[in-house]
Design a protein that fits this description.
about 240 residues; about 30% helix; alpha+beta; single chain; 60s Ribosomal Protein L30, Chain: A; 2 domains; six-stranded mixed beta sheet; globular; 12 strands
């Protein structure tokens, strides 16, 4: 399926499409080389569409082995400025579509962007921003159930952890000038889909289960630091 989409000043594409576009087999390369080649292919592809790497505002990184996450961090630091890191979600998915050890989905916007790093909520544990404002929209990196004071995983069941994730998102959204009451889309990453009913119960508590709020659930093998839950969202500015 062709994932390359150009709309107005937006560009959406995946590393899988880049590999086919450039007929480039990365299977026998180490992960750092694979990641750097994907970024270089992205640079060339984007230039053909009138974009550049600085237009990227969001990355979804899928790895075969989450323990190699530090390598991805090294590569991201090579290609983006510290105050303009894209938002990010990074997950382990064993069954990738390509022969490479990672896949990346890119979102880019050719225009003004405001990157949010509030110092509140779930602080970044790598080279990424907490949120980005694009036009009248705020897009947030995935957050995990970390205590905002200690930055440690909270204790409790999945419902308590879901509440913590939503509260962490609220802190970031407030820093951007909006709130959960303006959120229109959530992506929930779970290592165990049997936890979904608990997640949905908390979404109902927060009045986030209406037909106007889109919720997508993605099953993953592993999240950073072995957590079972991560949530990202998008919201309208007030």
């Amino acid at each position: 399926m062709d994932k390359k989409i150009v709309r107005d000043n937006y560009l959406f594409f995946s590393s899988e499409e880049l590999i086919h576009y450039f007929v480039n087999n990365l299977a026998e390369k180490d992960l750092k080389t694979q990641a750097k080649r994907i970024m270089e292919m992205a640079r060339v592809f984007m230039a053909k569409k009138g974009f550049d790497l600085e237009d990227i505002y969001s990355l979804l990184v899928m790895l075969r082995d989450m323990d190699q996450r530090p390598i991805i961090n090294e590569v991201i630091e090579l290609y983006f400025k510290k105050d303009r890191y894209p938002i990010r979600v990074i997950v382990q998915i064993n069954e990738l579509e390509s022969t490479a050890d990672l896949e990346i989905e890119f979102s880019a916007y050719k225009g003004e962007k405001r990157f949010i790093n509030s110092g509140k909520g779930h602080l970044p544990t790598g080279p990424y921003s907490q949120a980005v404002v694009v036009e009248n929209y705020v897009h947030c990196s995935g957050v995990r159930p970390l205590d905002p004071l200690t930055q440690k995983l909270i204790e409790g069941d999945c419902k308590q952890k879901t509440r913590r994730c939503l509260d962490n998102l609220e802190l970031v959204l407030q820093a951007a000038g909006t709130g959960l009451d303006r959120a229109y889309s959530f992506i929930v990453y779970l290592t165990d889909l049997q936890l979904l009913p608990q997640v949905e119960e908390v979404f109902a508590e927060y009045n986030l289960n209406s037909e106007n709020v889109q919720q997508e659930v993605i099953k993953v093998e592993k999240l950073n630091e072995g957590h079972e839950l991560e949530i990202s969202c998008s919201a309208l500015l007030k």
